[in-house]
Amino acid sequence: MFRLVTSAQALGSLIKDERKKQGLTQIALGEMTGLNQTTISLIEKGKPSVQLQTLLHLLAALNLKLQIGNQEQTKPSADRW
Asked: Which of 26, 60, 28, 31 minimizes the C-alpha distance to 43?
């Protein structure tokens, strides 16, 4: 299933939902990725200052992928940057 992500908050929410779906705590996910719990918490809250490489590493640990497409192909959303 694909979810439209148009903000740091939406991406954080997606990561949190998937982490919980997999039965992982922030600490357990941190151990898998080498990130501390505070960093994962900030990402899940949508703090926009996280490095792209950190996000990609976190998505890979959750077996998620990032897919980019033209904006015309997506439905309008109130959740914008």
From this structure: 26
